[in-house]
Amino acid sequence: EFTRRTHEEQRYDFVLSSPHLAYLANNVANYDPLVRADAEPLRAVVVVRMTSDLRVAADLAKRKLAIPDELSIVTVLTRAALAREHIGFRRNVDVVLTPTVNAAFQLLLNSRVDAAAVSSSFLRAQLLPNVRDQIRVIVESDEVPQMTISVAPWVSQTLRDQVRRVLLTMHENVQGGIVLRKMSFSGFIPAESKDYVSMRHVMRYLEY
């Protein structure tokens, strides 16, 4: 669907997306990364309850793992991390699909699954300390860039430069700061295609 909208239908001049979709837009529809969030790189992590007997990735065999939407960057990175440990995503693990990272995490807290795949930023920014103390990480993915704004190939260089300038300076004004805080970003920094080379080896795990 994302490929159809960006490549075939050419719906969008600018696209805000996760890094794997920014990579896809760049390689399939010739969108250029314009800016990316100025934030710590993103990882997917598999967490378990502190009292769980699961210690390492191999322990997930035949256990229930809650994941967000299959197009989510968290799910894609989790699949890649498990493959690195020679664990088949559905062949070895009982996958429980949920609509969001938060929904997957709630299943874990309510003891309805054995583990949950979430993002490092979710753990860092959205959980209270007393909740974080109830869980521990048993799997970490490789790092990838944060959210990205990409620009379509038909957008003029003049407009690209204007939009980039606004985005790079939006943290300097009150209204821009409010928007950024709601997105949990401190601001934006310039982005280039080379920033997404790390996505190449995980794209095989994206089902679209």
Précis, in short:
The chain is of the alpha+beta class. Helix content is 34%, strand content 20%.
- Topology order in helix (H) and strand (E) letters: HEHEEEHEHEHHEEHHE
Strand order of the largest sheet: 5-4-6-3-7
Q: How many beta-strand elements?
A: 9
Determine the fraction of residues in helical runs and give it as a percent range.
25-40%
Number of helices: 8
Strand content: 15-25%
Low-confidence stretches: none
Topology:
Elements: H1 2-8, E1 14-17, H2 19-29, E2 32-37, E3 44-49, E4 64-67, H3 73-84, E5 94-97, H4 101-109, E6 115-119, H5 120-125, H6 129-132, E7 135-140, E8 148-151, H7 157-169, H8 174-182, E9 188-190
Parallel strand pairs: 4-5, 4-6
Antiparallel strand pairs: 1-8, 2-8, 2-9, 3-6, 3-7
Helix pairs in contact: 1-2
Describe the structure.
With 208 residues, this protein is α+β, with helices and mostly antiparallel strands. It contains eight helices and nine strands. It has helices at residues 2-8, 19-29, 73-84, 101-109, 120-125, 129-132, 157-169, 174-182, and strands at 14-17, 32-37, 44-49, 64-67, 94-97, 115-119, 135-140, 148-151, 188-190. The strands form two sheets. It has a five-stranded mixed sheet with strand order 5-4-6-3-7. A four-stranded antiparallel sheet has the order 1-8-2-9, sandwiched between helices. The model has no long low-confidence stretch (mean pLDDT 90).
